[in-house]
């Protein structure tokens, strides 16, 4: 597996540092003078490097500084926890936008509190087993591809990749592994599928532990720099606990900025959260970690791609094309 190469220019790192300093200087006072309505917060999160900002915020005490006690619960996919979130059993989720945009279109009401990640090279890939006869994407026709979630970001990214190579996504079969990314490398080695969708650090785990190989990087073409994960709450939760939502965002912004500017911090956080050895975290690829207000235009790309590849029905075409579906998920912010 290929090692990560830093992409942030020194100027960007300096700007990010200023943002963090600004957040830090005001956040402590805000937490003391206006404590969160709800101090105990449960966050359901994917085990992926995309959420390094979350794990840094936990490990470095940014949540505690905001008066929050955050419990992180690992999940296999975003879709798997939406029902629990709508019932109030989960406060905030950290995962792919795809499941939430679909739920929003179907009538649920969610708020994107902050962005978590966007694609960078080798952070989301298609992998094949060490002894696989597959050499090209065309070899996948008629084959099964393992995913961590049904109708997920994996479905979307792979569909886009196949389409740009002239292959109908309908010519492959997507199969969901309910145990998610940690289980996929072993399943792939066992022959469950011809290829599998993985996120870092499990792309690197697949290579280090099983000798599995990258067939295609999904950060290309129409999905170059594609938005992947975010931090979401229901609209009702965000309106009931606005100070809690604001405190969470302040802490996440500090975690995001540090993840984006300090690779060592991201490595340490992922090693701690997933019990990964240094030989994995030292070479895993890292995504972009957006800092600042949620970028509506960026998230709109997801909705448009979902419509294009059938993850949203055509009855939602007007909402997607007018941008109202995504706009309703961003709102005034916490």
Describe the 3D structure:
- There is one protein chain.
- This protein has 334 residues and is α/β, with parallel strands linked by helices.
- It folds into two domains: 10-118 and 226-330, Periplasmic binding protein-like II (D-Maltodextrin-Binding Protein, domain 2); 124-223, D-Maltodextrin-Binding Protein, domain 2 (3-Layer(aba) Sandwich).
- It has 15 helices and ten strands.
- The strands form two sheets. It has a five-stranded mixed β-sheet with strand order 2-1-3-10-4, with helices on both faces.
- It starts with 9 loop residues before the first helix and ends with a helix.
Q: Approximately how much beta-strand content do the residues carry?
A: 15-25%
Q: Count the helices. How many?
A: 15
* Spans of at least 5 consecutive residues with low confidence: 1-32
Task: State the strand order across the main sheet.
Answer: 2-1-3-10-4
**Name given to the CATH homologous superfamily of the largest domain:** Periplasmic binding protein-like II
Q: What can be said about this structure in brief?
A:
With 334 residues, the chain is α/β, with parallel strands linked by helices. The chain has helices spanning 10-33, 52-59, 62-65, 82-86, 97-105, 153-164, 184-189, 202-210, 235-240, 242-261, 263-274, 278-281, 296-308, 317-322, 324-330; strands at residues 40-45, 69-74, 92-96, 110-115, 124-128, 144-147, 173-176, 195-199, 213-217, 229-234.
């Amino acid at each position: 597996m290929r090692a990560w190469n830093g992409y942030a220019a020194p100027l960007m790192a300096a700007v990010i540092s200023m943002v963090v300093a600004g957040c830090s200087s005001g956040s402590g006072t805000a937490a003391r003078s206006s404590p969160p309505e709800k101090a105990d917060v449960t966050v359901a999160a994917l085990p992926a490097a995309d959420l390094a900002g979350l794990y840094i915020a936990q490990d470095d005490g940014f949540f505690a500084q905001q008066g929050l006690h955050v419990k992180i619960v690992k999940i296999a996919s975003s879709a798997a926890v939406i029902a629990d979130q709508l019932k109030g059993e989960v406060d905030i989720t950290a995962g792919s936008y795809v499941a939430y945009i679909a739920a929003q279109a179907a009538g649920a009401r969610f708020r994107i509190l902050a962005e978590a990640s966007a694609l960078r090279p080798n952070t989301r890939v298609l992998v094949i087993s060490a002894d696989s006869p597959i050499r090209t994407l065309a070899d996948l026709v008629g084959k099964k591809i393992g995913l961590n979630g049904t109708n997920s970001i994996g479905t979307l990214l792979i569909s886009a990749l196949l389409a740009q190579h002239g292959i109908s996504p309908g010519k492959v079969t997507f199969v969901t592994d309910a145990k998610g990314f940690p289980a996929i490398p072993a399943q792939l080695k066992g022959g469950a599928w011809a290829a599998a969708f993985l996120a870092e650090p499990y792309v690197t785990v697949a290579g280090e532990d099983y000798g599995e190989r990258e067939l295609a990087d999904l950060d290309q073409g129409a999905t170059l720099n594609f938005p992947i994960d975010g931090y979401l709450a229901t609209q009702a939760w965000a309106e009931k606990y606005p100070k809690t939502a604001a405190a969470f965002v302040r802490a996440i912004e500090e975690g995001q900025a540090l993840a984006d500017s300090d690779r060592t911090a991201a490595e340490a956080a992922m090693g701690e959260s997933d019990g990964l050895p240094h030989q994995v975290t030292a070479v895993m690829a890292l995504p972009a970690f957006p800092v600042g207000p949620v970028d509506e235009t960026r998230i709109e790309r997801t909705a448009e791609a979902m419509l294009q590849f059938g993850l949203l029905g055509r009855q939602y075409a007007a909402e997607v094309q007018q941008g109202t579906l995504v706009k309703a998920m961003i709102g005034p912010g916490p």
